[in-house]
Amino acid sequence: MADFEQRYRALSRQFHPDYFYNAAPAERRASLEKSSYLNDAYRTLRNPISRVDYLLKLEGLAPQGPEQASKQVPAGLLEEVFALNEELDEVREQRSSGAPAEIWKGRLERARQPIEAKRAEHEAQLRELSARWDATGDRKVLEALRDRIIERNYIINLLAGIERELAASLS
């Protein structure tokens, strides 16, 4: 990462539009374009998740839409998604029937705990697999990264559902 940062800064200085202020319009435009591409690449590669997404696309391993991604999700996780969606439906019913907020908010918090733990576990796996990919470039590691990313998206969506329910209580 230190080498990456150093190279980015060197290239950034080389292509920064401020250094092309007095250049011909075509050179200024080229500088601006290169600087923009460089910044986009930096943001993509610096963020671990967007970096993996980029690598998957580059290597032809990115899922080709939600249908393909859902085929790669473990059955156990899909069962958890189903169970949580049922729990959220029950919480909505409790809330709409006038149940005290402490009751249904407590259910949401209890539902969130195992999903948060799973999210943390996935994040650790993503870090470990990313380091292995960097060290080896092994395609099987990249395939494992793809699987973790797909699962991570489900987990993030589950947490977002809980957050929406909690936010709805504030309005």
As a whole number of angstroms, the C-alpha radius of gyration is: 22 Å
The percent range for helix content is over 70%
**Shape designation:** elongated
Distance from first to last alpha carbon: 43 Å
**Strand pairing plus helix content: what structural class?**
mainly alpha
Specify the biggest β-sheet. none
Total strands: 0
Number of helical regions: 7
Give the integer mean of the pLDDT values.
87
Low-confidence stretches: none
Q: H/E series, N to C? A: HHHHHHH
| Proportion in β-strands | under 5%
How many structural domains does the protein architecture include?
2
How would you summarize this macromolecular structure in one to three sentences?
The chain has 171 residues and is mainly α.
